[in-house]
Each structure stands twice: as C-alpha cells, then as structure tokens.
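Support case: NAP complex. Customer-provided input:
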Amino acid sequence: MITLTETIDVPRPVESCFRYVADFRTTVEWDATAVEANKLSQGPVDQGTQFSVRCKAGRGHLNLAYEVTEFVPWQCLVLEGGGRWFTVKDVITFESLGNDLTRIHYVAEFTFRRGLQRLATRFERGFEKMGQVSMERLARALKDDNPPPEASQDTQRRDGKLTSALPCFTRYGYRRGQKTWRPMTADMTGKHVVLTGANAGLGFATAVSLLEAGATLTVVARDPAKAADMQHAFKAETGREADTVELADLSLLSQVTSLSERLHAQSQPIDVLINNAGALFNDYAETAEGIERSIALLLLSPWKLTESLLPTLKNHARPARVINVVSGGMYTQKLRCDELIMTPDEYNGSVAYARAKRALTVLTELCAEVWRDHNIVVNSMHPGWADTPGVQTALPGFRRVTKRVLRSPAEGADTIVWLARASEADQVSGKLFLDREPRTTHLRPRTEERPEERARLLDWLTETYNTLHLNDKG
Ligand SMILES: NC(=O)c1ccc[n+]([C@@H]2O[C@H](COP(=O)([O-])OP(=O)(O)OC[C@H]3O[C@@H](n4cnc5c(N)ncnc54)[C@H](OP(=O)(O)O)[C@@H]3O)[C@@H](O)[C@H]2O)c1
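Agent response - structure generated as follows:
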C-alpha cells in the first residue's frame, strides 16, 4: 500500500472549499494526472454519488471509478475508487481556522492489485510527487487569483482566417480551448442571476451549472407547463429549483417591460443578467405588436430588458455582469440599421437571425462603453455549434451534416457560465467570447460596419421601440 498525506491552508471559507472539492469533476482543474472527470449519478453530490475520472498513466490512460462513501458537510469527505491497477481511498478533512481560512488535510491510500505490489514500490516516489503537485494546484485553484482573460497567440492566429476560425465552433474547438483553462472556483452563493430561455438547450445547461455553484437564480420562461417540467428537471439534476420563475414572452416588448417591473419589485439587486433566449425563425411572421419577430426577440428584447434593469444592475461593490448570447452566424453580416427589419418579400430566416445577432454584438460594445462608470461589464459570447432543441427544430439539414462535431449543450453553455461565475471575467468589458477567450468580431473585412451605422444603433432602437408603442396605442 502507498499512503500519501498532504495538508494545505487556503484563504477561503470552509463551506466554499468543501463544495468545490466535493464535486469531484473539479479534479481536472487541480489533480496532476486527471484529464477528464464526469459525474455519473443524478442529483446533488452526496453519499453514494459516483464519478468517473480518466488519468494520464505513462503513455496511456487509466480509468478510475469513484464513489462518495462518507459525506459530512464542511467537515469530511471519503471517496473510494478503483481501476485496473489499484484501489484508492481518499479521506479529505476540512477545518475552519477562522478569518475565512481553511485547512484541508488529504490522505490517499493506494492498494495495488494482487501481483502488482512490486510495481507499487517502484512507483512510490512518483506517487508522492504527484500528491504534492496536486495539493499545490488545489491550493492555487482555491486562491482564485487568475489573470484577466486574453486571447492566446494560437487563438489570434486562428481568428485571422475563416478556414482556421470555423473549426473552433465544433466540439474539437471546445477541447482545444479546454486545455489552457484555469480553475473556475468562485462560489456563487449570494449572487443573484437572471437568465432568460432557461427551460431548454444552452439556457437549461447554464441554469444547472449556476444552481450547482450556489447562485440565487431567477429564470424567465414563457410556457407555464415547460416551466414546471424545468423545475422538476433542475431538482432531479441538482437538488435545487430556480429560486424564482418569471413568465414572459420575450418577443413582446410590453411583456419585457412588465417583466422588468416585476424584477424591480423583487428588490434584489441583480449581479448577472444573461440574455440567452432566442430562436431562428425560417418563416416570416410579425409579433402581436406588429414587428418582425426575429428582430423583436433577438435584439429589441435584450436591449429593452437590460436597459430597464439598469437601476438594479448599477453600482455594486464588484461589477455587475451582462452577458449577451449571440451567434457565429453574425460573422456573415454587416450592421446596417435600415436592413435590420426585413420585409416579407426579402425575408430569409438565417439572414434576419445573423443581422440581429450582429447588432447585439455591436450593442454589447456600445453598452460596455456607456456603462463603464456604473460598474457594469457587458460581454457577448457565441457558443459555437451545439446540439440543442433550437438547432434540431430550425436547422435540421445543418444538424444532419454536422451532428458528429456538434458540442453538447453543456459545452456550448460553458462560456456563459464562465462569464457569469469566474472571478477574472469581470475584468474585461465589451468583448465577444468563445471558449473563455476574447475573439475577433469580424472574420472578413467586408462585415465591418461604418462608424455612422454604429453611432446610430442606440437611436435606431429607441426610435423603433417608440414607433411600436405608437402603433400599440393606435
Ligand atoms: N445551439 C447553438 O448552436 C447556437 C449557436 C449560436 C447561437 N445560439 C444562441 O443561443 C441561445 C440559446 O439557443 P439554444 O440553441 O439553446 O435554443 P433552444 O434550445 O431553442 O432554447 C431557446 C430558449 O429560448 C426560449 N425562447 C424562445 N423564444 C422565446 C420567447 N419568445 N420568449 C421567451 N423565451 C423564448 C425557449 O423557450 P421555449 O422552449 O418556450 O421555446 C428556450 O428556453 C439563443 O440565443 C441562440 O440564438 C445557439
């Protein structure tokens, strides 16, 4: 048997350290050998929760299956696991030293399978080294002092050409990005997040991660039956439901306004607003308020919601965050305000969608500038290509061709979660992100907007909204 014993002191409250370590998926962020970790059981982490961990072992890999066999919140965790070479028992104890300082004591006992004991003696020194490095990495992760995000040289080079930028949209792009990510250990307890479009696809995956991270979550959905199913699914997945569910059809500006009034009435400041709800409409239709529905849902709605919520987002001790979910489709279009509302004759769903998303990307940059003094950071992200109900319904042909390279909803949602949660993500504003890195907003020079179009966008939004209201009254 090899026994490793390590102790670290970290400047974090004991609850926060316990929550982070107990979710053993985080091993990929600190363990010296873990490259992939998954939670196999549904529900919150507790006694009986099972994980699979894939570790580097020489030139190959070793798969380990773990189960939490003891779970005493804020005090002790025991995980027992095994693979083809050994079984392992991890006993991790947590002690609060006061002043938000925590001592973590880690004992790992490896018992090699019959006939492999000699191997154990040979590798003892290597195991000790691996234990030390892992605990140093855990201490660093929990210190949570990552530098501000910036694009790597490789990413900048890829963004220089359409042919190298597009593969980044696939699951392989996600895997590439993942290799350089830093630990995301911020605890969201006490942070209030408002998320639209939470009952499906990327929004659902985002909500699950944020609930697991302890956020206070207000979700917006439009269908009461879907909202009820969503709450059941949240409970089954995380042991929690969203704290508040608001119903609103976000393609109707009157409902956006009444939603923002209800959110004001909650009198709970908003730390993070995620404008995620969206859809690609292949056919032309107008909303009951008389406006083409793509532009209503994808641009006017997030603009109006964010602007109306400004008083509850303003002047926090740490910056409030606004996250606009856009799309790589916007790379095909140039901002021209007069072309944002398409007529039935010229309507093409993908073009209308891409134009609205392009305008939302520019709006993100404009708002970031205007709201800097209010301590609000505004960023956009695009998820790449993810296999969600939205893609299945609106783009069946695209899905058929790209199915093997599409991301999972959780992979597509990862950067939304990171922008909402990571401590370093509030140190930049006005950027477009993919896979936790700022990316170019133009892949071809011909999509760069003229300065006068850019300057006009905010006025265009106000004018269009006012016209709508006139129509409404008329
Ligand atoms: N998946 C991708 O590859 C991809 C790529 C680029 C960008 N995006 C963007 O990512 C976001 C999420 O997309 P997704 O793929 O996760 O789509 P999804 O699976 O269709 O989910 C969209 C969510 O938005 C909600 N929603 C749609 N219209 C609404 C309305 N009028 N009022 C209120 N809620 C409404 C939907 O509610 P219902 O269930 O009631 O319809 C659903 O919860 C969208 O902004 C989309 O444009 C996705």
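The chain has 16 helices and 15 strands.

Case will auto-close in a few days if no follow-up is received.
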